[in-house]
UniProtKB/TrEMBL annotation:
It holds the Pfam family ICMT. Its cofactor is Zn(2+). GO terms for molecular function: protein C-terminal S-isoprenylcysteine carboxyl O-methyltransferase activity. Divalent metal cations. Probably Zn(2+). GO terms for biological process: methylation. It is a multi-pass membrane protein. This is Protein-S-isoprenylcysteine O-methyltransferase. The chain crosses the membrane at residues 97-120, 126-145, 152-170, 182-201, 250-269, 304-331. The keyword Endoplasmic reticulum applies. GO terms for cellular component: endoplasmic reticulum membrane. The keyword Membrane applies. Gene3D superfamilies: 1.20.120.1630. Its EC number is 2.1.1.100.
Amino acid sequence: MATVSLSLRPPPLHSPRLSLPKSHKSHLHPPLLPFLSKVPSGTCLSVRHFNKHLAFTPLRAFPSLPFPFVPLPSNPLPSFNVQDISLTPYTIVKLSVYLSLLVFATKTAISIVLSPFFWAKLSFAWIFYPMIISVSLACYSLYCITRKKKHLSLLDQSIVITSAVAWLTAVPGACSNGFLEGWPLAFFFIYIYFLLLEFSVRKRLYRDWSIPNYDPKWNVCVPKSHQLWFASSVLIGHWMAAFEGPKLELISGGWANLGIWALVLMVLFTRYHSILYLSKYSENVVEPKAVVQFGPYRWVRHPVYASIMMLFAANCVALRAPMSCLFLLVASATYYGKKAQAEEKVMVEEFGEKYTEYTSKVKYRLIPFVY
C-alpha cells in the first residue's frame, strides 16, 4: 500500500479552496479528516505519493486546530546532589575491602570453572562419593524450605541440616580432591554435632526437640536479602577453602594437627555453654528472662554467634586456606553484627539499665578485644 504524505505550500492564485480527489480521501488517516474540515480558506494541501515529509512551516495558518494536551507530572523529579553522599575514611576502607574480596572471589571462581582439572575431579567425585545422594538431599531441602517453611518435622529438619553440612564440607572436599578423606570428612561430623547441641539442650530441659511457642518480639530477623547474601557468602567461602588449600593427601596429620583439634574443642565448649547459660536464664531457650552475665557471656555479648565464626575459622585453618578464612570472618562479622545490634535494641527495651550496664562491662559483641 503506497504511503501518503501531506505538505503545506503557499496557496496558488487560481485555487482559493481545498479540493482532494476522492481516490485520495480513502487513504487518509481517519483522525485527520476532522482537522481538514477546519483548515482556513486560502491554504492548499496537496496529497501526493512522492512527498516524503510534511512541512509545518505556516503554523499560523492553523489557529483553530485542536492539538493534544499532555499534562505534566505534578510531583517534580527528585534532585540528585553529589554533595549529599557522605564518604568517611571508614566507609572507603570498608568498600575497598568488599570490592577486593569480590574481585578475588570472582577471579577464583572463573579460574576454577575454566580449569579442566576441576571437571576431571568432579567426574571422579561422582564415582568415589555419593553425589547423587547429596543432590537429592539438596533438592528435598529446598522443597522443605520453600513450601513447608516452619512446619518441618524432625525428619525434615534432620535432612535439611545434613544436606547443608554436606554441601559446606563433604561435597567441596570431594570435588577438589576427587574423593573424600581427611579433614572434610571430619568436619562433616563436627558440623553435625555442633548444630545438634542446641537440640540436645532443648531436649534435656523441655523434653522436646521442637521450639515451643514464644513471644514474637524475640524473633529478631534481618531482611531476606541479607539472609540470602550471608548464606551465599558462607557457601562460596567453604568452596573457596576447599580449592585454596593443598591436596588432602599433602596435609600432614598426627601431632601437627593438635592445635586444630584444640580449636575444635574450644568451639564446641563455647557453643554448648553459651546455649546452656542462655537456657537457664530464659524460657524456651529463645525468650530471656534476665541478663546473662556468666560463662562465655563474660567475654562477648553474643557468644553463640561467635562460636559459629570460630567453627568457620577452624575449618579454613584445617584446610590451610587463609584467604577463605578472612572472607568468611568478614562476612560473618558483618551479618551477625547487624543481627546482634537489632537484638540489643530489644534487650534494652526489655531490661533497660541492666542491659546497658552489661554492655558497658562487656564491650565486645563477637570477637574479644577486636569487635
